[in-house]
Amino acid sequence: MRIGIHPDNMWGTSYSDRWAEFFRVRGVEVKFLDLLAPDFLEQARGCDGIMWRWFHIQEHKQSAKNILYLLETQLKKPVFPNTDTAWHFDEKIFQFHLLKTLEAPVPESWVFWDFAAASDWARQAAYPLVFKLTVGAGASNVLKLDNASEALRLCRKMFKQGVFPGTMNEFRSRIIPRKVRELKGCLTRPMSALAYLVAGKYPPLPAPWWKPEFSYSYFQEFLPGNSFDTRVSVIGNRAFAFRRMNRAGDFRASGSGKIDWDPARIDSRCLEIAFETSRKGHFQTMSYDFLYKEGQPVICEISYAFVDEAVYQCPGHWDAALNWHEGQMWPEEAQVIDFIEEINRLDRPR
User: Pick from 16, 15, 18, 21: which is nearest to 5 by CA?
Assistant: First the structure.
């Protein structure tokens, strides 16, 4: 068996290195590929399966998702993540719609693709509400709105100007005053504008999120009384779970770094919902972020990719019958075990 792996190393993490290690100790040959090269198809043909942990950046969203889809559907190669697992990655709007079709519990949400409809709704909506860009991780691009004025301002910006991810107030519950944001760009904007007027040179785009979000508005009901969220990561027949405490004075927990790994504090209902949703969605791996609505757990977001170290720090995991299995495990090892089993089931000749 030969597995092709596209290397990943961003923000200090690498799934690919650990995948390779766990494959090799099981006697599986590993071939590192460059799936962004012109000859990626030829590279992939000689492999029994392909793996690529791609990130929520525009370069990967416009390349990796479609490359893996092509390898999966046309070359008939087992891939990780497969289409079922990753087509909705970093697309919160369609995560919401997908979860609704899977009959998973979710907060009430409203998606608008029309400025007039969004504005009319915002004027009569009950506040507070949560506004989200469809992209972002670690609680970025998520704001609490306390009144219609704030909502209408965001609607105008989303439909008239667009918003670059990472330029909204990242880690406070309120919006940064517009003047503060404008002052930050006062030195560079005149030079960029002059270059555009004189030489037709388009202003530089911010890396790595250079694609502005535009022409939609996504609102979610605000769920009060949640001082933490519960992160459940399902990999095959295993669920790893921990709680994340909110930042001080904030309503968001994702990215806070304040983690409680005590399994006794995990609500078994979250485990059951996560297992059932993964089964219905045919997900190879998936992390679920749970909050409570009137005492009942609801899924706010999902993601196939997550910080591996946080999962490894779990003292054990549950199986689908909610039996506890003591002992730490790298998520990459669980993914390797499952991927080998998937290839063996398919029994595809190389």
Answer: 16
Give the SS3 label for residue 98.
Answer: helix
Tell me the range of 58-62, 72-76, 206-210 where mean pLDDT is highest.
Answer: 72-76
What CA dihedral angle connects 155, 158, 161 and 166, to 10 degrees? 130
Any idea which residue has 């950046």 for tokens?
57
**One-letter amino acid of 349:** P
CA distances to 67, 225, 243, 312, 333 from 58, in Å: 14, 35, 30, 28, 28
- Cα–Cα dist 218/177, whole Å: 21
Stated as kind and residue range, the H or E segment containing 243 is strand 238-245
CA distances from 339 to 12, 79, 288, 302 (A): 24, 8, 21, 21
> Coil, strand or helix: which one is 13?
strand
- How do 228-235 and 217-221 pair as beta strands? unpaired
Exposed, middle or buried, 204 (CB in 10 Å: 0-12/13-18/19+)?
exposed
Structural domains for the chain: 2-87+337-346 (3.40.50.20), 92-105+225-330 (3.30.470.20), 109-221 (no CATH)
Q: For residue 198, count other CB atoms closer than 10 A to its CB.
A: 8
Classify each residue of 110-148 as buried b or exposed e, where b means 16 or more C-beta atoms within 10 Å of its C-beta: bbbeebeebbebbeebeebbbbbbbbbbebbbbbbbeeb
**Is residue 93 helix, strand or coil?**
helix
With beta carbons less than 8 A apart as the criterion, state whether 297 and 230 touch: yes
- Rounded to whole angstroms, the Cα distance separating 111 from 71 reads 32
Q: pTM of the full predicted structure?
A: 0.87
List pLDDT tens digits, range 95-128: 999 999 999 999 999 999 999 999 999 999 999 9
